[in-house]
Amino acid sequence: MLVWVVVLLVIVFVGAMVIYRVRGQMLAGGETQSENSAGLLEHLRDLNRSGQLSDEEFAKARSALLGKVQEDLDARQERSKERPPKIGGLDLDRLVDDLDDDL
Q1: pLDDT of 60 higher than 70
Q2: Contact, 44 vs 65, CB < 8 A?
Q3: Which of 21, 31, 69, 75 is deepest in the core (most CB within 10 A)?
Q4: Which residues pair with 98 in a beta bridge?
Q5: Is the Cβ–Cβ distance between 40 and 65 less than 8 Å?
Q6: Residue 28: CA atoms inside 13 Å, Cβ hemisphere, count?
Q7: In contact, 84 and 92? CB cutoff 8 Å
């Protein structure tokens, strides 16, 4: 009986560690979007220089990539506008309004 309890605890612990690592990788992936785009643009530039990609193909791919980056930036800015900034659970917009009222 004790052996099964230990086995169950080990399984739960290993599962929690896997979830923790996968979650960390997923969160880190969202933060390195610009690095990925810069790397892809450099790769496209190398292909163009080596002749494997024509100037026209490079221009189309670069425009598409930069358009996607701009869309991502715009979406991120919109999300940040929707959520009021909070520090330690405080709503900064409300705090500033309250301070303005007091002055």
Answers
A1: yes
A2: yes
A3: 69
A4: none
A5: yes
A6: 6
A7: yes
Report the C-alpha gap between 38 and 44 in whole angstroms.
10
Three-state SS for 91?
strand
Q: Which residues pair with 87 in a beta bridge?
A: 90
Cross-strand pairs, 86: 91
Q: Residue 67: helix, strand or coil by DSSP?
A: helix
Tokens for 68, please give them. 């996607």
**Closest by Cα among 28, 41, 49 to 68:** 41
Distance, CA of 46 to chain centre: 26
Residue 34: HSE in the Cβ half-sphere, 13 Å Cα cutoff: 4
- Look at 18-22, 26-30, 96-100 and tell me which has the smallest mean pLDDT: 26-30
Task: Tell me if the pTM is above 0.90.
Answer: no
CA–CA separation, 7 vs 50, rounded Å?
Answer: 56
pLDDT tens digits, 78-97: 877 766 555 566 666 666 66
